[in-house]
Design a protein that fits this description.
Layout lengths: L1 E4 L6 H11 L2 E5 L26 E2 L12 H17 L3 E5 L3 H9 L9 H13 L3 H9 L1 H6 L5 H14 L3 H5 L12 E5 L3 H17 L2 H10 L14 H8 L5 H24 L4 E4 L6 H15 L4
Helix pairs in contact: 1-13, 2-3, 5-7, 9-12, 10-11, 11-12
Length: about 300
């Protein structure tokens, strides 16, 4: 299998399409937002007409109010890859959710089920004292706290939940009982454009999304009966569009904060993927001719029978 990773806006979808065309591949989504129906503009979801007839999997599989974990993604992605391989085709993962990729390749430990009353208590604590959950996690498991950003409340909540339910540090449990992927050789390609070029592209893309219907898309999702509290609305762009609709932000400020948060997210993605083992960096955008050729060469060498 081949994985195309990297920060948002780096051209992963375009490069994955090229590789799929050249190497008889099918694309498996590895983006935690593109799994949701109706969230199209703000996720840069590739329209069906632009997929060049290449099968795409694990896109539009959930309603916005459905919960979805990295473990569930790993199970579905593995089953999908097996089906693609059985057809004699190459599975090509594409997306920027590094935790999903790692869960697929390395597996996750079999942690305790969600405890909603506990989660409600933790959420109330965080609402009263923002960042208090991260401080609490530092007390229970400093190693886990160092790896999770204080603003990533869902991951902090899950880590605390595991600590409290198992009475063990979650970082210790993460190393136990993992079900790593077997039966595949994996080539991981990472797109790494320089920040000075990436940031203006991200700013332009955010502005384009607001100009081309992001707010209207959010209004349409709400009109279908989905609540503003649905998890996908927490993501960059959608959160600001919701704040605009609710009168908390002006149109100008909504774009500004969406751009700022997206730049910060891209930086965190790069930091995550730098820790990904055996990832081959391609220092540019996926639509650059020299990057495309380097990727084609890497995959061709990877697929060539060893002598």
């Amino acid at each position: 299998m081949v994985a195309v990773a990297g920060p948002t806006g780096s051209g992963k979808s375009d490069l994955a399409l090229l590789l799929a065309e050249q190497f008889n591949g099918e694309i498996v989504n590895c983006d935690s937002l593109q799994v949701y129906r109706h969230f199209d503009i703000g996720t840069a979801k590739l329209p069906l007409a632009e997929r060049r007839g290449i099968p795409h999997h694990l896109i539009d599989i959930l309603d916005p109010n459905q919960l979805f974990t990295a473990g569930e993604y790993a199970r579905l992605a593995r089953a999908t890859m097996a089906e693609i391989s059985a057809r004699g085709r190459l599975p090509i993962l594409a997306g920027g959710t590094g935790f999903y990729l790692r869960a697929l390749l390395e597996g996750l430990f079999d942690g305790p089920a969600r405890d909603q009353p506990l989660r409600d208590r933790l959420a109330a604590r965080e609402a009263r004292r923002p960042a208090s959950l991260h401080r609490l996690l530092r007390r229970f498991d400093s190693a886990a706290a160092r790896k999770i950003h204080a603003n990533d409340v869902p991951k902090v909540t899950r880590a605390l939940e595991i600590c409290l339910l198992t009475r063990q540090p979650v970082s210790r449990l993460f190393e136990q009982g993992r079900d790593a992927l077997t039966g595949y050789r994996t080539l991981k390609l990472g797109l790494l454009p320089d920040r000075e070029t990436l940031n203006p592209r991200l700013d332009a893309r955010c502005a384009w999304m607001f100009e081309h219907g992001l707010v209207e898309e959010v209004r349409g999702i709400l009109a279908l009966g989905f609540a503003p509290a649905c998890k996908p609305f927490e993501s960059h762009g959608y959160k600001q569009a919701m704040q605009l609709i609710e009168g908390e932000l002006s149109p100008r400020d909504a774009v500004f904060y969406a751009q700022r948060n997206t730049r910060h997210y891209a930086k965190r993605q790069i930091t995550w993927f730098r820790r990904e083992r055996e990832l081959q960096w391609l220092k540019g955008f996926g639509d650059a001719p020299h990057i495309r050729q380097a990727a084609l060469d890497s995959v061709a060498n990877f697929l060539s029978p060893s002598v």
